[in-house]
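Need the bound structure for coenzyme A, inputs here:
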Amino acid sequence: MSVKIIGTGSALPQKEITNEDLAQLVETSDEWVRERTGIGSRHISTGETVVSLAVRACEKALENAGKTASEVEMLLVATCTPERGIPCAACQVQSQLGAADAVAFDLNAACAGFLFALHTAWAYIEAGIYENALIAGSEVLSKIIDWTDRGTCVLFGDGAGAVLLERSNMPGILGFVQHSDGTKGEVLKCDSRQLKNPYISEPINFPYVQMDGREVFAFAVRQVPACITETLQKVQLTPGDVDLFVLHQANKRIIEGISKRLSVEMEKFPMNLDRVGNMSSAAIPVLLDELNREGRLREGMTLVLSGFGAGLTYGACALRW
Ligand code: COA
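Answer from helper R.:
Posting the output first, comments after.
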């Protein structure tokens, strides 16, 4: 028995914003952003929500798997930008999809959120509690971006991706690792609503992303190859056995650094960040869906998914397609 991804889907907001468009807002240039990050444009919401994007991505994943919403037993939404504190995004998605029999809840591990949700769903299916799980990573990061900060506003985009996981007799998820380091939380943060009541003075709140880019860069280039190696050792594979590394899409130079540390050629690291930027928890499932629909994922291929982000959180998953 294994747990296998049997369908993928994704959805992006309609509006595309180029680096040149951003140069109208802040002092930057297409050349600077492309050279330092590999990003050329990104999709930004002009009305789409975490819920509406997740619903579209989930519908496509179900269609791709040949399943209906009523068959879904578990529905997880990984997000750090929900529209509502309560109810959770997953319950809203459940309602709009018509997945009446699914248990639904959100999971926030920032850019590693989709991966952690995948591992959570794996555990429920592996334990025999559910037969399947629909997992979405959905973000509208443009809500929490400081559009006057050129150090962050050029990096992020909005979107959603989803996969359907199911118990299977075919090989699927082989093994994974996940890590958290809360002591480094200050290097990438965004305040939420803070304590405010008649008995305290006005709180200091900055509900926009603040980041020490260099620290995050160094963390990713060091920890991602280490956790990929740890995962592969666990399942007795080597980097050379892997057909594709589907990594969190934050920065082309980070991915190049990871490829170098693993001694694996860049051809095995597909990228879409030039068109979509960093979509946090949506990055991995959107790229996976694009690869799936382009016919680049063949049955039996070995993939490694790996994500990292605020928390700090990071992890990797080895699987057979
Ligand atoms: N356009 C032009 N100049 C910019 C700029 C922009 N969009 N953003 C920053 N700069 C400037 C800085 O102000 C600084 O100028 P100064 O030397 O006059 O002070 C200069 O470029 C260098 O800044 P620095 O932060 O050292 O650049 P960098 O090479 O580290 O690149 C990042 C910055 C953000 C692209 C890079 O650190 C990075 O990608 N880090 C990882 C971030 C990430 O992926 N976060 C999400 C993880 S999930």
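Comments: The mean pLDDT is 97. The chain is about 30% helix and 25% strand.
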